[in-house]
Amino acid sequence: MAVRNVFTQEQLDEARKKLENLPDLTPQRITREAALENLKDTILVLAKEKGYTVSDIKSALDAMECRFSEKAISAVVNEGGGKKKRAPRRAEAAQQKTTPQDNQPSS
Predict the structure, then answer these.
(1) Backbone phi, then psi, for 75, in 5-degree steps?
(2) Which of 65, 45, 68 is nearest to 55 (CA)?
(3) DSSP string covering 24-46
(4) Percentage of the chain exceeding pLDDT 90
(5) Which residue of 38, 68, 83, 94 is 20 to 30 Å from 61, comparing CA positions?
(6) What is the pTM (predicted TM-score) of this model?
(7) How far apart are CA 22 and CA 56, in angstroms?
(8) For residue 52, which of 36, 31, 76 has the smallest C-alpha distance?
(9) What does the pLDDT read at residue 39?
């Protein structure tokens, strides 16, 4: 069947009406990040109170066909309770470092 190169206005109007009547799939399609956020409380209980490791939690999720990396699960478990994130080094601060020669008075 050949690809159609031209359409009538009637065909476009009909297509627009059909597309506008398609249901909203947003509630059914949850992103990976949103899914982890949704499971966060349960993951924290497993890790902090029930003694599960990140690997144990990953295996359980894998068995339910919910695939997440250990790194992603670990980020949920360690979120907010660990080290402070370091601020990136500013280029200006690096350039303003002085050398011992700069601190000597001029003669």
Answers:
(1) -65, -40
(2) 68
(3) P-GGG---HHHHHHHHHHHHHII
(4) 61
(5) 83
(6) 0.56
(7) 40
(8) 76
(9) 94
